[in-house]
Amino acid sequence: MDLISQARAGFARIDADAALKEKALANLNTWLTHPDFAAYRPQIESLCHAGAWSVLLDSFYQVMPFGTGGRRGSVGIGPNRMNLWTLGASVQGHCEYLRQRFPGVSPLRVVLAFDVRQFEDKRKVYNPALPNPVLHLSSREFCQHAAGVYAANGIQAVILPPDSKRYVPTPELSFTIRYLRAHGGLNMTASHNPPDDNGSKFYDDRGSQLVPPEDQLMSEMVDEVAVIKHIPFADALRAGKVQLLDDAPHRAFIELCRHESVLGPPKADELRVVFTPMHGCGGFCAGEVLEAQGFRPIPVPEQATPDGQFPNVTKTPNPEVPECMDRAERVGTERHADLIISTDPDADRLGAMANRSPDGKGTFRFITGNELAALLTHFKLAQLARAGSLPAAPIVITTEVTTGQATRIGRQFGAQTISDLLVGFKYHADALWQIESTGQYGDVRGSVADFVIATEESHGIMATAGVRDKDSACAALLLAEAALYQKRQGRTLVDYLDDLNRQFGYFRNELLNIVLTGLEGKVNMARMLDALRKNPPKEIGGLPVTSFEDLQDPDGRMGPFKGDTDKAARNFLIFRLGGDGQTAKVCLRPSGTEPKAKAYIEVSGAPWKAGTPQDAWDSSCAAIDVRVQKIATDFLTNALATIGQTPAPGADKLSR
After folding, report:
1. Which of 180, 235, 456, 646 lies at a 20 to 30 A Cα distance from 606?
2. What's the pLDDT at 269?
């Protein structure tokens, strides 16, 4: 029996759509027979002989979708994996898009950046005894391959020298595109995903990722790619078709971030800050900015070296996960630090822990992404107001799933707030671009000079219009200055957060992940959202659902679809709840990069009233905590019931 016949028999035992199986067989046949894929054949044969039919079906049933700004997922063999073919097709499509976007412009130029990743098959999918074209493939090599595609298409790629020891983090890439007046950019990174993942994110000439309908146009061009033009990177470099990036944009980026200071440099050893890039690129942006501004960050030695396997990181290099900062916490305890700051591999996200004692001898408290959003929004607005430099109509930008406390804070300072954006910083950047180019976004009026800060719940902050993506560097500086300001008053960031809860109301925000893996999981996820869309619950966690909103409703506030990418991004359900003196909200959407649906839960109460006893305040906050867990358990149970499943033990566990 030949391999395709074996695969057909193997796929028959898997519960999946017959059309997808046929597509997988067709793709598998191409990769087994076409000379362009000859190097992959030994591993594909090995998977067939091992009967790894689920792996093969998932690897070949589709070409990896061009999703949130590009492609991201497991490195591996097949059209549904990240490899040089899937990257090459994406870059070829980008070349076609740029030629259409900038007709007659020559030369077109793009800036390329890459993180520290290198594929080592941690999941042990492939046979280690056989040749493997993707084994040891690094983000740098991915990027150099992309440069060869751009060069073959007559587009100049700007990239770090092959022997460079530094990296261009995500926020610096956004800045550099603008600084060099390039026409676009590519970032090879999988952010905080596991080590065996990688991805490509494409940027426009404004230094932001594409939004509908532009991302739809590019996606269609990527899908239409039949031939990938490519010349070897070394040949392109020798021929002058690739430009090497010098230090000028980097120096300008560091100075831009330092310009966002609202306090000025600290005195020597006035604040003790531990900083870790968790083996990623953060030392080249957040670390340098803190150092340049006089904070003298204390390193975590075993995590200071760039390493795409993240060997000394617990769980995952994701600032949303408190456990990943355990080594930094030990250093902080030993050095009596006031603050711990971490960054993820591509240095767009910020993580933090604050000492509970102003003398640095206490324990540390993790600061969530929502708390960072509220804290930094308040701190920057308050400091600008104190200095008399707050714009007359300041602008604060956040998302539908970010804490409502940030919106309340903005309004306290008379800010115009954009608080209903979809998930993804490309929407923040687009809102800012519309303000910059037209003077308005919805009801908001002004200019980029009025922009103060943009935030999201997943530890993303943008504090300068000079960058159009998440930026850990400016955020790290603002957070260090917030800690410094509190310490000068004998207080901590923990005290600051308590003050915000009292002044603006206690908000408890939680993320519940509904994990549904593989092809079957993707089908079930679609079924689950459709069932909830057609028959939304009347009550969740003991609170009545006061309103339900489906953002895919073409008659709703977002109007008709701008394309398939817009429709996918708007696969987003909002359940608003109320009662018992509490307001709550559940937002559900499928992740754009991971095999799960995300349920964002928020429960909030009223601000503290003068004269309220401490025990009464504590009791009201505790009641909110209880309510959040009830909502999580009830929503998870009901959501899985729509696809005939029940929650696994502990699946409804929250952060605390």
Report:
1. 456
2. 87
Nearest Cα to Cα of residue 550 among 570, 568, 567, 564: 570
CATH superfamily of 265-281+292-368: Alpha-D-Glucose-1,6-Bisphosphate, subunit A, domain 3 (3.40.120.10)
191 is catalytic: yes
The average pLDDT across 634-650 equals 95
All residues at 6 or more sequence positions from 259 whose CB lies less than 8 Å from its CB, including other chains: 464
In this structure, which amino acid lies at residue 135?
A: L
Catalytic residue among 139, 191, 200, 219: 191
Return the higher-pLDDT residue of 207 and 269: 207
| CA–CA distance, 254 with 380 (Å, rounded to integer) | 19
Q: How far is CA 315 from the centre of its chain?
A: 17
Asked if the model's pLDDT at residue 591 lies above 90, the reply is no
Contact 632, 546 (CB under 8 A): no
Q: What pLDDT does residue 68 have?
A: 63
**CB distance 252 to 289 below 8 Å:** no
CB 370 within 8 A of CB 501: no
* CATH number of this structure's domain 63-246: 3.40.120.10
pLDDT of residue 656: 80
* CATH class, range 370-503: alpha beta
pLDDT tens by residue, 88-112: 999 999 999 999 999 999 999 999 9
Q: Is 512 helix (H, G, I), strand (E, B) or coil?
A: strand
pLDDT at 327 over 70: yes
Q: Read off the pLDDT of each residue in 302-306 and give the average, rounded to a whole number.
A: 96
How confident is the model at residue 147, as a pLDDT? Answer: 98
In CATH terms, are 63-246 and 370-503 the same topology?
yes
Say which range, 354-358, 521-525, 612-616, has the weakest mean pLDDT.
521-525
- Other beta carbons within 10 angstroms of residue 544's beta carbon come to 12
What are the distances in angstroms from CA 56 to CA 8, 120, 369, 627?
11, 19, 37, 43
Q: Tell me the domain boundaries of the chain.
A: 1-59, 63-246, 265-281+292-368, 370-503, 505-641
Give Cα 357 to chain centroid, integer Å: 32
Distances from the Cα of 322 to the Cα of 316, 326, 375, 482, 593, angstroms: 10, 7, 18, 21, 21
Which residues fall within 8 angstroms of residue 493, CB to CB, at 6 or more apart?
339, 352, 354, 367, 375, 479, 482, 483, 486
Model-wide pTM > 0.90? yes
70 alpha carbon, distance to own chain's centre = 13
Q: Which residues pair with 540 in a beta bridge?
A: 543
How far is Cα of residue 46 from the mean position of the Cα atoms in its chain? Answer: 35
**Sheet strands (E) in 457-542:** 460-462, 507-515, 539-540
Residue 595 pLDDT more than 90? no
Q: How many CB atoms lie within 10 A of CB 161?
A: 11
CA–CA gap between residue 216 and residue 97 (Å, rounded): 11
Residues 6+ apart with CB under 8 A from 282: 169, 275, 276, 342, 343, 344, 347, 472
Q: How far is the C-alpha of 18 from the C-alpha of 35, rounded, in Å? A: 28
Query: Which residues are 367's β-sheet partners?
Result: 352
